[in-house]
Design goal:
With 233 residues, this protein is α+β, with helices and mostly antiparallel strands. The protein folds into two domains: 71 residues, no CATH class; 147 residues, no CATH class.
Length: 233
Amino acid sequence: MIKYLRLESYEDALNNLALTPSQLPENAGINFSRDYMVRYWLDFETKGSPSLLNIEWFDDPTAYKLKIKKPGTDEYVEKAVDLVETFNWLIGLHVEHLDRWRGYDAAFKREVDPELPEDTNTRLMLDGALKETDDGAWHFRKVEGYTLRTPGDHNDREKVLVVWRKLTGDLEQDNLMLDEWVRKYRLSAQDTEFDVIYVNGSNNLPNLRQAEETWKVRLIEEAFHQAMWDVEG
């Protein structure tokens, strides 16, 4: 088996910078313009560009795309970025199990919950069981493996679970489906099976504070951004 990887090039990164209208004064001098470009342009004018990591696109991890220039031409084509594979490399994950994308569907109902305030005293529940189907509205993909707390020391491991989701935009339904999916696979954020759990998108999974003020359940978007841009000088 051979794994073929195409790495984003410097030219690819530049070609995917999305510019917003410049706020430069009309009478800005050459020196001012140069300093602005160097100090602020990449931070503000191109904020949200695909090559600078647009976390809003993480709602559907399979739809993140970059414009790639065809060799020897001026033509560009859009190609999907494998965020799952990229994240594994960024956090140094030694993959032990890589599941496929699985689709799910469900019916919903609301039930009165006396523990909630009177103006919002109903809770969203599943009406029946979670159904696995390829054309379901919700999709999940899980990756299991480990990272090394001490570089090079495979005896000092941190067991990791990564949960990728395709979100529908309905936060309440998305989080309920995540809770049910976790329950279906008998996973828990509060047991000792995994040391760290990464999930994309806002969620309601119970969280535990660990040593050094870290949390067990972490957002993929935040970890992705940190791994890409936090560089020690």
